[in-house]
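Ticket reopened. Same input as before:
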Amino acid sequence: MEKDRTGMRVGLTQYGDAGFSLFLRKAFIKAMGYSDSALDRPIVGIVNTYSGYNACHRNVPDLIDAIKRGVMLSGGLPVDFPVLSMHESFSAPTSMFLRNLMSMDTEEMIRAQPMQSVVLIGGCDKTVPALLMGAASVNIPAILTVTGPMSTGSHRGERLGACTDCRRLWGKHRAGEIDAAEIEEINGKLAPTAGTCMVMGTASTMALVSEALGVMLPGGAAIPAVHADRLRHAEATGVEAVALAKSGRVLADILTPAAFGNALRVLHAIGGSTNGLVHLAAVAGRLGIRIDYDAFDRIGQETPVLVDLKPSGQHYMEDLHKAGGLMPILREIRHLLDEDCITITGKRLGEIIDAADIWEQDVVRPFSNPIYPRGGMRVLRGNLAPDGAIIKQSAASPALMKHTGRAVVFTSLADMDRRIDSEELDVKADDILVLQNAGPKGGPGMPEAGYIPIPAKLARQGVSDMVRISDARMSGTAYGTIVLHASPEAAIGGPIGLVRDGDIISLDVENGTLTLDVEDAELERRRAAWSPPAHEGAERGYLKLYLERVEQADRGCDFDFLVAPETSGVTPQK
Ligand code: FES
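Engineering reply: fixed in the latest deploy. New output:
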């Protein structure tokens, strides 16, 4: 950042004549109709993530209008510019595959264009981490806002929300309890407004942990997309962006190891998406901060799940907004937080908690009466996942938390698609389903395929959950006894790729273990016969770059050349 320069003088194109560079730039920007007076003001860039494919960002044009109003009310000049946008359902092979590309786009467009601060408009799952990763790498004064959650739908008197209810009702359809006509009718009711999935999925998780990190104005995470408060929050964000431009407070001042420690506490307390851990590791990595998974696991033992939202509980994000959003959560766990962290406003986190109105409600439980006594996630270790695996214990079946069973193995997504519903599949309710080659490189893009469907013949018998293990991710909206992110992944020779049908696997969530009961010598024999999976099209383009440079889940699935070269801190520590 060129901190001592303002307006159009920042980041001039190099011709060897700075005066001519400025002259040329002003000639072109004047074609937009700006006056000299406007161009002399602090410029606030606004990252426009609208896309006709991205329903979760349908309200971005309205938010940009409101942010611009706030910037101009404060004497700044707002200039919006596009970056890549993506929606979970329109990002083949996966949105995770594209997240790093969006972060690079964000980083380079912020760097390339003149602005003294930038407003990031995130929303759908991967957009918030991508924007924060890119802006963190530039280390510019930046403030985040989000599109906000959708409002709930309704079907025959039952309240519905994407996409926990998408999965639950599709499961009933697979089991024959809902016919084709009714599931089609339901399809039109699951996503009834603009905005992001309204359960505690990845979008809600990233919004809440970002507010906890201090990069969003207080109260912004849970406001519904269609609520007038969402526009008022956007306007206030524009006002704050001008103050930020003047203060020169950059993201590294906010995103400290202690701030990430707070965010990881909040991740446990909200029963957040397992993806939140991967994304926080990626954002932290851009600033040289490493997440200690054993410490994350340890703080989970003392941080209960307090938020009663689907899929771990019963409410939706609009209910959390009415309950006060993030603030009652912070108030309940404030004894576990570092209250001295500085937020985007320049205020300490403790001051913000003190200033918040708190009232009686039933969405955020008191610390003494949680909906789950420990944190949402548990880190598992053992010979099946030497570098760790994750289970969302708050959304798992208590009866399966300690379970030993016979492996039923699918070697790829295509193999699973072909055989999962076959009547010939040799599978019983107490078996353990294993999916291989669905990790960062194997997917590619670590698809949210960890929510392996219950085989149709078991679903019809009423089986609703089984232990499922993969190197894939899972949507935050999903639930079940599902072990994810087994690391190292199968596609780089990890032990999960060496499992064979009939092997015995033991899961013990209480003790944090995941064990494959196969002799080492036999595993070595299998390893000697192993070869990595091939990917069509891998010889060129972004897929080639991705496969060569993507890291494992514990490093946030970032590209190795984007992570900060030096480690500056480790978190959580408290
Ligand atoms: Fe965009 Fe769920 S699909 S948040």
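Residues 56, 87-88, 124-125, 196-197, 201, 203 surround FE2/S2 (inorganic) cluster (CB under 6 Å). Residues 82 and 174 are 41 Å apart (CA to CA). Please confirm and we'll close it.
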